[in-house]
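I have been asked to look over a protein record a colleague put together. Thanks in advance; the entry in question is below.
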Amino acid sequence: MSNIFTDGLYTLDQAARIAQVSPQLLRNWLGDTPSRTAALERKMPANAAGVIGFIDLIQAMAVHAIRVHKNVSLQKIRAAVGAAHKRGIEYPFARNHQTFLFSDEVVIKILAPEEILIYVTGKYKDQQLIPPIVESYLIDLSYDEQGIANEYSPLSDGDYKIILNPQRKYGAPIVTPSGYTVASLVSAYEGEGSVNA
């Protein structure tokens, strides 16, 4: 069961901005529109407030990277998620993984806690000589002991970095080591009129 106190909390607009997609596209991927079948297995159930959790956000970033890099259909992505689920693997795109495309078939290689190769369909089943799809956001993720994403750090400069951690301030972007949210710092800047003030 999802818990906003530990799973992060993002409006669709916030999540869409972070994942670099439109809110409508994100709704479609999550199955929040009656005419669309979800491409992702949601961790936070659909709700009247229209919010999603950290794991849902990370999965959306994966789908965006896969679709931008190789224009993989949502049907193939749905099949990949379904194949992983049949093997007892929830949220495969939020895990430490690599995604491959071989002759337009999607392959997911789960890297931790143990290596698992999930081939969805097709005549090339279980082939392993496949170059990975570039999912550049993966280098900015940290994982828990089950290999599931638990922190995203999209920006850093020296000792300072911005993190999204569902355990801290509902997953809002935070500047470390200060612990202030990005929204608080932007508000202070706008209120004072300059960085020095």
